Every structure is written in structure tokens, then in C-alpha cells.
């Protein structure tokens, strides 16, 4: 869980406005399915929308 949250921070920090995002995430093959599953669940919770809305987590 910690690794998935950390990876998401590395990918989504600054919403792509700064050259900072991780472009590759290496995961051991024995953890791959669980990591991807948890990562997809977490990504679905991100609120994309108007950057001036306080509930938005990721602007367009």
C-alpha cells in the first residue's frame, strides 16, 4: 500500500506542470498483479476537473 501511494505521488505531483513525474515504475514480478490492482483503485479515486475547485486533485 505504501509503495502504491508513493508511486502515485511520484507520477501525479504537480499534475504534469513541472518536469518531475516518474516515467517508469519497476515492480517485482511476484508483486505486479497486486500492485497494478491497487494502483488502478487509487487512480480511480483521483478527482479530475476544474483546478479552481477545492475538491479537484488533478486539473485538465
UniProtKB/TrEMBL annotation:
SUPFAM superfamilies: ALDH-like. Residues 3-60 form the Aldehyde dehydrogenase domain. GO terms for molecular function: oxidoreductase activity, acting on the aldehyde or oxo group of donors, NAD or NADP as acceptor. It comes from the Eukaryota. Signal peptide: none annotated. This is Aldehyde dehydrogenase domain-containing protein. It comes from Rotaria sordida.
Amino acid at each position: 500500500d505504501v509503495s502504491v501511494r508513493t508511486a502515485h505521488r511520484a507520477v501525479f505531483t504537480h499534475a504534469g506542470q513541472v518536469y518531475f513525474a516518474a516515467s517508469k515504475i519497476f515492480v517485482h514480478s511476484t508483486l505486479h498483479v497486486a500492485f497494478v490492482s491497487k494502483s488502478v483503485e487509487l487512480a480511480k479515486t483521483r478527482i479530475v476537473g476544474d483546478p479552481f475547485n477545492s475538491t479537484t486533485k488533478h486539473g485538465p
